[in-house]
Input
Amino acid sequence: MTNGRFKSVKHRVVANGTKSRVSMIYFGGPPLSEKIAPLPSLMEEEEDSLYKEFTWFEYKKSAYKTRLSDNRLGMFEKITAS
Output
């Protein structure tokens, strides 16, 4: 959504052996057919997107086939000539 301008952090947990920890998940997201692309308000004039447009379904399908440490956007990156 930010075209690589902002990077998200990897989820990390430091376990504490003396205190219990509670984790909670939630299920939320756009409709499966929703297109994912950089927000126009975050794009510079004439700036190209670093990623191909994809749907939320395509992203979820890709994410479920990978490990947490994998780059889940890798298959959507555009190949650029160097």
